[in-house]
Amino acid sequence: MSMTVIRPGLLSSIQDQGRYGFQKYGVIVSGTMDSYALRVANILVGNEESEGVLEMTLMGPTLKLEQDMLIAITGGDMVPTINSVPVPMWRPVYVKQGSVLAFKGCRPGCRSYLAVAGGYDIPSVMGSKSTYLRAGIGGFGGRALQQDDVLPVQNSLSTRARRLLKQLSISIQDKEFAAADWCAAKAHILHSSQPITVRVTSGSQYEYFSPESKEQFFSQPFRVTPQSDRMGYRLAGPELTLSQPLEMISEAVALGTVQVPPDGNPIILLADRQTAGGYPKIAQIAAVDVAIIAQTRPGEQIRFQEISLQEAQRLYLEREEYLHQLRQAIGLRLL
Amino acid sequence: MKQQTEQVVLTYQMLPIGEAALMVEFGKGIHPETNKKVKALSDYLEQQPLPGMLEYVSAYSSVTVFFNPAQVKQNYQQQSGSHTEPLAYEMVAGLLENVLNNLDYSAATSPRTVEIPVCYGGEYGPDLAFVAEYNELSIEEVINIHCQGQYLVYMIGFAPGFPYLGGMEEKIATPRRSSPRLEIPAGSVGIAGMQTGVYPITTPGGWQLIGRTPLALFRPQDEIPSLLRAGDVIKFKSISLAEYDEYKEGRP
Asked: For the segment A48-58, what is each residue's pLDDT rounded down to a tens digit?
């Protein structure tokens, strides 16, 4: 099975939960920017949550589905259509062979995700299907999709995917697609107002920042600049300074680390971050809120809110519990 | 039985990096002794990963452990039967403390020595003459000094397989180029200030390029995708252009 790329979109690449275990060799994690959207999309089509999906950025692609497929679209809203008919997001959709799936500009949000039952049929590199764009490895030929690419899709489906297809085939009749009449919960970002609140815990060098900078970091909004990508989001706002110069050597950084280079403008480290860095870190974004950043576009404003480690962990576990319940609920619908 | 225990006090500090990572810091500076402690803990975690651990990353003076809080918690409750809700961070910190208190620091594996053949100068080392001139040395002297050194791989990072090396002679230290090159080919050997290093993949950069190695430092198809590992000692060996070509042909 396969999809043919009619138009590739701005930056469409295969990503999964990331390439773990190799950062000690300098190999970055990569993976989806919005891991909530990834996991939900996979659950909706009966895949393992870690399966590779297509991450589409700002302007989506146009794809021709060469066979019947079970798909799910999550993340930011790119106004998806199948043969020009709007197709609902956050739910399983059975699509007939030969249909054209088209995405437009993303609003609200920044990144949309397309999962297909069985997953994309591409080899794992270092245990992951994620595209490592800079090194040219993983994903589809180590690069973003291009026009006329034929993206292979696995033939074998999970029991759950087969049951979903069977249920949806009852309602498809002579239509080109059939979507489930139930859906998963959208991420919060997609219905929040500006500036968007992002929850953080203290960074390793928080104490070294000047009292004024600490105060401004939480009281003032920051704008996402156009120099923002999968590696990091560069922010503009009040200039953050240290109380006194700090000698730092390289140490590991994490997904969602907020570091401040000498120019005083914070950078949020994201999926394609380097494995280590030597700039002072003012904050660490709560894991669940990294998905919010992933869906924020250049020009939008964010505001940081401090939470405790306990609260960050509570949010983390709450999300795990929701995803667990989603899996179970879908299982019950298939009985 | 002969008792052979080396008493080394491990002083360290732990701190959370958010709810899903923890950093163990053995010091604040770049010292081989501190890095040995990093290596000892890394070796342990390599052999015996902690429950719920995703991976660890070692740096100059620290080891950071990334974990899944849900998995850590699950494992902990199964073990202790406790109903309280402690932080996964604290559980990992407790496990690590135990590991660190019992860590046989002297058992750290002895360093591997890796020889890196380098074709110095010419097309591959366009800045070799500048490095010589800047330090008032001849080109041969620069090559000799660079080859005589033993360089400790403190950590791998910045790019896949890129070694952060220590131990370069100050006699050949040279500041970075005032305008960086847009493309530095993979395998380039360079000097930047007091540092020397090898570029594993083609990247932009401002290092003074003195030569190139035919060896691939980044090996994405291999089980361990990096030729070098933290704790290795490397030595550079001067080779001719003909030998460089032979190496290249020898490796598929």
From this structure: 999 999 999 99
A145 touches chain B (CB under 8 A): no
Considering the domain boundaries, does residue B3 fall inside one? no
State ipTM. 0.95
How many degrees, rounded to 5, is the angle at CA B90 between CA B84 and CA B96? 135
Domain membership flag for residue B8: no
pLDDT in tens, A1-35: 999 999 999 999 999 999 999 999 999 999 999 99
Pair B73, B187 in one domain: no
Closest to B88 (Cβ–Cβ): which among A126, A274, A313? A313
Residue ranges of domains in chain A, CATH in brackets: 2-184 (no CATH), 192-316 (2.40.100.10)
B35 and B157 in a single domain? The answer is no
Q: Does B237 reach chain A within 8 Å, measured CB to CB?
A: no
Q: B7 in a domain, yes or no?
A: no
Of B73, B107, B141, the domain-final residue: B107
Q: Does residue B135 share a domain with residue B59?
A: no
For position B25, which CATH number holds? 3.30.1360.40
Quick one: B125 and B63 in the same domain?
A: no
Determine the distance in angstroms separating the CA of A204 from the nearest CA of chain B, rounded to an integer: 7
**Last-in-domain residue among B107, B133, B167:** B107
Per CB-CB distance under 8 Å, the chain A contacts of B156 are 24-26, 275
- Chain-chain contact of A313 with B21 (C-beta, under 8 angstroms): no
Residues 57-86 of B with CB under 8 A from A: 57-62, 64, 66, 69-70, 73
Task: Name which of A25, A251, A317 is nearest B156 (Cβ-Cβ).
Answer: A25
CATH number at residue B142: 2.40.100.10
Q: Does A246 touch chain B (CB under 8 A)?
A: no
The answer to whether B19 contacts A313, with C-beta atoms less than 8 Å apart, is yes
- Give the burial string for B105-134 (b: 16+ CB within 10 Å, else e): beebeebeebebbbbbbeebbebbebbbeb
CB < 8 Å to B158, chain A? 26, 250, 274-276
Note down the domain range covering B52: 13-107
- Across the interface, do A312 and B18 touch by the CB < 8 Å criterion? yes
**Residue A143 — very low, low, confident or very high, per pLDDT cuts 50/70/90?**
very high
Q: Are residues B46 and B76 in the same domain?
A: yes
What does the pLDDT look like over B7-43, one tens digit per residue? 556 789 999 999 999 999 999 889 999 999 999 999 9
Q: Which residues of B touch A317 (CB under 8 A)?
A: 69-70, 73
**Which of B18, B157, B220 has its CB closest to that of A250?**
B157
A310–B contact, CB cutoff 8 A: yes
